[in-house]
Amino acid sequence: MQVSEIISSVLKNGVRKYKFKNSKVRPFNQQPEGNKGAVFGFRSKENMITSRGVVLTSEEALAENEDCFTHWTPNVYSYGTYADDGRTIVKGHAEENLKQINTFVIDFDRLPGEKLDTQMILNAALDLELIPTLILKTPGGYQAYFILENAWYISSKNNYQSIEVAKRVSENLRKVFAETLPSVDLGCNHFGIARIPRTDNIAHFYPAMTKDMQQLIAWSMKYQSAATTQKPFLQLVPSASGEVQQIKEKWVDILIKNPEIIGKKGQLGRNNAFFTLALACYSSGKEQSECYDFLDELNEKLNRSMKDMEVKRIVKSAYSGRYRGANKDYVLNLLANWSAESLSEDQLFTQNRTAWYKHKKDRTERKRSHVHEWKVDILEYLEAQCYRYRPEIALTKTELQAAVKYQDKPIPKRSLDKAINELKAEGKIYVKVKAGRGGGLVVATRKALIRTVIVVNQHVKKAYKNAIRTFFEEAAILTKMIETPEKEKKIGLFGEQTNLWDTG
Fold first, then answer.
1. What are the backbone dihedrals phi and psi of residue 121, each rounded to the nearest 5 degrees, phi first?
2. Which domain holds residue 460?
3. What positions does the domain Primase C-terminal occupy (predicted)?
4. What is the pTM of this model?
5. Quick one: pLDDT at residue 59?
6. How far apart are CA 303 and CA 324, in angstroms?
7. Residue 268 lies in a domain
8. In this predicted model, what pLDDT tens digit does every residue of 359-369 receive, in sequence order?
9. Does the residue 491 lie in any domain?
10. Same domain for 29 and 93?
11. pLDDT band for position 12 (50/70/90)?
């Protein structure tokens, strides 16, 4: 698909199709398009930061500048103008000037040393059933576009309530992805500047995966009600219930009130304090995004704050599943260094001792792996073997056992059987047993099946749908994604004009 067609699908007729003056492709009999909005383009990140850009009021102008811009505003503004006589500084891309919202954008910033690719984003999206319409590769990671079926028009009524509704949806989209991928940038502008689609940065485009705004609002409300609504951790209130809440202990209150924490050689410091507090959040049932908000606020209060990427790394580690909660010895050590108060243990730790956990040994330090670890290994192996146009793999159980290893040791047969049964029950893999000579297993992961459904050519999909049902009866529900009615085929900007030319 041409970049101009992707641009058009994002803009939702928010700007003119043809330039108001000096159009090179507008048909002679084209009726005036009337008043429409504007978007802004920037030729580099440096120009974007200083607002040195171009006001664009037509798809034709964007097409003429294909691959010239690095950033743009995918949501349309009522107008755009210049702030200087040289017409280099743009203005008008402010929230109160929004005309229509066309897309939500999530920015995934890869942390140093972190692995991040489009498949990881797609895997998270498949689990959440929130598949982006467009994924762009950026110098620092990726940006995912959730393009709406129809534009969400902004009204000034009720103090711009329509913007607040859309902002809540955007916020919740970011938070739910951040629970799986801590590389999500939670702080960037919701409806501001984003990377622009170019011929050199389009990682994936799923034109059928546009989003219905009303359904997104319903999802957002459901997600919001399910999440913990009380976020001001810095105002701690004793728990009225009998549940253990490490985050509500006195020692937490002491640590978060000390802005001097920094740390030095031989002393537990800032990183240890944040990690211990993150484990307290985790053991108290707080969402990962809430924990980040808590530590981010605390970080701003420190006299010498940490880099944001380091805070994200700490939260990710605390929520990795390797730990159950804060370690009492660490807490006492931290308080010895950073607390001026002299309190007894009974005053510091008011809850049941079962709230305290010893840190689990890392997998590398154990002779045996847990089943949940083998499950990850099995999925990683199957994902690597399941190809784009053939997501299922045929093999024997012995071959699977030999292929799935950790530190050159194959998975034990009993662990393999248990892991497969649990993965099947969770709906993460589909298995068909072939009996007799030459028999074995036919296995496909849920992610591989849906991924193939999305990317295969339209004429292949009907046959592929039947193949899924033949191999995996349980997976028939996945084929509903294929049965989405094909939308009216769009004609590119220049293709439309070509049809009008007299070539005889």
1. -65, -45
2. 375-481
3. 259-324
4. 0.61
5. 93
6. 30
7. yes
8. 556 777 778 88
9. no
10. yes
11. very high
